[in-house]
Design goal:
Blueprint (H helix, E strand, L loop, with lengths): L11 H5 L1 E2 L5 E4 H7 L5 H17 L4 H4 E11 L2 E10 L1 H9 L6 H22 L2 H26 L4 H15 L5 H7 L14 H20 L5 H21 L14 H12 L8
Antiparallel strand pairs: 1-2, 2-4, 3-4
Helix pairs in contact: 3-5, 5-6, 7-10, 7-12, 8-11, 10-11
């Protein structure tokens, strides 16, 4: 089992990130209000209105990035009331924080975070398939470690426990196939790992499975191996259902790719500066 790693040191903006059923990241304005240390939602909403105008001026559709919603909150003694909220895309958050109160320390931190994350997305879209594979494989390695930590907290403690836990996720995502079934169907050698032979699309699906399972285990404070296994299976199945609804190729039908270790060596070799021969 991979050694569990805590991700508690990550940015509060990263912690507040949510993912919708289509796999798109979003933040709520109410969460953003707390992080940015606004005491009145109306003040943050002023920044949102300015951000919407900037979004429109940039030629973007406002409703693609700002979704107005209504939430119910408790106000004491079991009573509830409706409050206005927004679901904000990454771009909407970036624009909102650009128009927020610059005197607030967390605003500066937020500007840096969303600028960096937006640039990362741009860079990812410009990458080749090989570069995307390598980046996603490294991300999956990291988040599998986070997932191992969450599973361990739930009661998945031994190497065998974790193997069974992982297989539940694979079965959900791969229509009943476990890790050995996938390995066998792809005619991989004994020491070859299935994750090292996945393309970027398949790696992204598995990354989504891992991150959403970890979040659900922690958010719902799941306890017990059987319960953790059930969560992993359900998340995997939900990712599979989303792929189907979007008209994508089922993960078990995607092609087997070149070993990622060979890809990494080739990319590193290409990045090395070539020495010029002195005459």
């Amino acid at each position: 089992m991979d050694k569990p790693v805590s991700n508690s040191a990550q940015s509060p903006f990263e912690d507040a990130k949510k993912t919708n059923e289509d796999g798109m990241d979003f933040w709520t304005a109410r969460d953003l209000m707390i992080i940015l240390e606004y005491s009145d939602f109306r003040n943050l909403e002023n920044a949102i209105v300015k951000a919407q105008k900037a979004c429109e001026n940039s030629g973007q559709n406002i409703t693609d990035h700002f979704v107005e919603v209504t939430n119910m909150i408790r106000i004491g003694k079991g009573a509830k009331r409706e409050v206005k909220d927004y679901w904000l895309s990454r771009y909407a958050c970036y624009l909102t924080i650009q128009n927020a109160d610059p005197s607030k320390p967390m605003v500066a931190l937020g500007q840096t975070y969303f600028a960096v994350q937006t640039r990362k997305q741009e860079v990812f879209e410009e990458q080749s398939e090989e570069e995307k594979r390598l980046m996603l494989r490294n991300e999956l390695k990291k988040h599998n470690s986070f997932l191992a930590g969450a599973a361990q907290d739930a009661g998945v403690t031994t190497t065998l426990d974790f193997a069974i836990f992982q297989n539940h996720g694979y079965k959900g995502l791969y229509g009943g196939l476990d890790q050995k079934d996938i390995h066998r169907s792809r005619s991989l050698g004994k020491n070859q790992k299935i994750l090292d032979h996945m393309g970027s699309t398949e790696l992204a699906a598995n990354l989504f499975r891992a991150t959403q399972t970890e979040e659900k285990l922690r958010r719902e404070r799941i306890k017990g191996k059987d319960n953790a296994n059930a969560v992993h299976y359900k998340v995997g199945r939900k990712v599979r259902q989303t792929i189907k609804e979007l008209g994508g190729t089922m993960p078990e039908d995607l092609p087997v790719m070149e070993d990622i270790k060979k890809v990494e060596r080739r990319l590193n070799k290409d990045k090395k500066p070539k020495l010029k021969h002195k005459t």
